[in-house]
């Protein structure tokens, strides 16, 4: 499977009036690297994460039935679909697992969607969502394994290239892989794209190692956003061609990145949102001297009490 730059450009034109053009922060000599670092501040997106891009592209590029839309989510995708559905006047039902943070569930409900909580992990919520879609005829908006979602997420890279400096490498957190599929498709053959996954949640790393999607166990502080059990065939097909490799980070490094973002920038990042930066500051990705590195900060739906514990 190939996603083209033309498809991403068309998606950007489709969703531009509905999403925020999030800013870019450029640094030199930061995060333990002597060269330039460009941060794409996608956590400032509507509903707190990049996923709003894919949600709008999915809703605006397909016919929505009277039953509305349904989605399974660890939290951020559900918030994005709920927000997009509300803006477009569409009914939404969101299925979340029991591990979803109360902060993310509150965001989903604030946008008027019906929330169904059940099952220990994301895969359980996806099964419940699929049953509802089969019974109701609602349109399923998949968080990563759908072309419209991947293409929508790729618009973040389009903006980054237009608004930021030239880059050699981009670090992107991976859950199911929709974001990195879109970003890597935009920069394919021009910029090295490196995925970042928690050591305890490595679906893309495992797929690339096994030469095909495989199930993995999930045990990470970032499981509510980077906790997909399996990338699926679509994500794997894109990433095996367009992603250079996947760097793994421990939970301690993710917490260190959250702490640094709060201490030095007053950015309240959820664990998954800080994972890409964790790869840089922990050394799991080691840039060469002077390498122009981009880091996508992707999510801000964090429990503030938990962040206070980490930051203290």
List the helices and strands and how they pair.
Layout: H1 5-15, E1 24-28, E2 36-41, H2 51-60, E3 69-72, H3 76-88, E4 92-96, H4 102-110, E5 114-117, H5 122-136, E6 139-140, H6 147-153, H7 155-163, E7 169-173, H8 178-187, E8 192-198, H9 203-210, H10 232-242, E9 245-249, H11 251-265, H12 271-282, E10 293-297, H13 304-311
Q: Could you characterize what this model shows?
A:
- By secondary structure, the protein is of the alpha/beta class.
- The protein has 13 helices and ten strands.
- The protein has helices at about 5-15, 50-60, 75-90, 100-110, 120-135, 145-155, 155-165, 180-185, 205-210, 230-240, 250-265, 270-280, 305-310; strands spanning about 25-30, 35-40, 70, 90-95, 115, 140, 170-175, 190-200, 245-250, 295.
- α8 (about 180-185) links the parallel β7 and β8 (about 190-200).
- The N and C termini lie far apart (about 45 Å).
What tags apply to this protein structure?
2 domains; 312 residues; Rossmann fold; alpha/beta; globular; 6-stranded mixed beta sheet; 4-stranded parallel beta sheet; 44% helix
CATH architecture of the largest domain: 3-Layer(aba) Sandwich
Give the count of helical stretches.
13
Range of strand content: 15-25%
CATH topology of the largest domain, anyone? Rossmann fold
Mean pLDDT: 93
Shape: globular
Biggest sheet: strand arrangement = 1-2-10-7-8-9
Structural class: alpha/beta
Helix % is 40-55%
What is the CATH level 1 assignment of the largest domain? Alpha Beta
Biggest sheet: strands, sense, closure? 6 strands, mixed
| Radius of gyration (Å) | 18 Å
């Amino acid at each position: 499977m190939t996603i083209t730059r033309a498809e991403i450009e068309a998606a950007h034109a489709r969703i531009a009036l509905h999403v925020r053009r999030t800013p870019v922060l450029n640094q030199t000599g930061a995060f333990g690297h002597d060269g330039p670092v460009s941060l794409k501040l996608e956590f400032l997106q509507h509903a707190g994460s990049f996923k709003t891009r894919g949600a709008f592209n999915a809703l605006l590029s397909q016919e929505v039935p009277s039953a509305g839309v349904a989605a399974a989510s660890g939290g951020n995708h559900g918030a994005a679909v709920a927000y997009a559905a509300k803006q477009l006047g569409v009914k939404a039902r969101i299925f979340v697992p029991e591990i979803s943070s109360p902060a993310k569930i509150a965001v989903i409900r604030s946008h008027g969607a019906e929330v169904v909580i059940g099952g220990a992990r994301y895969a359980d919520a996806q099964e419940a969502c699929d049953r509802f879609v089969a019974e109701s005829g609602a349109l399923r908006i998949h968080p990563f394994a759908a072309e419209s979602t991947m293409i929508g997420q790729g618009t973040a890279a389009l903006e980054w290239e237009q608004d930021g400096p030239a880059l050699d490498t981009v670090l992107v957190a991976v859950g199911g892989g929709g974001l990195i599929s879109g970003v890597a498709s935009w920069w394919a053959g021009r910029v090295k794209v490196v995925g970042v996954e928690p050591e305890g949640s490595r679906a893309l790393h495992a797929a690339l190692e096994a030469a095909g999607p495989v199930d993995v166990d999930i045990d990470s502080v970032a499981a509510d956003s980077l906790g997909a059990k399996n990338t699926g065939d679509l994500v794997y097909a894109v990433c095996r061609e367009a992603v250079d490799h996947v760097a793994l980070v421990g939970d301690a490094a993710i917490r260190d990145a959250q702490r640094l973002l709060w201490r030095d920038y007053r950015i309240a990042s959820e664990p998954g949102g800080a994972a890409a930066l964790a790869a840089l500051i922990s050394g799991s990705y080691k840039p060469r001297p002077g390498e122009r590195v981009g880091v996508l900060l992707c999510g801000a739906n964090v429990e503030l009490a938990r962040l206070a514990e980490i930051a203290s």
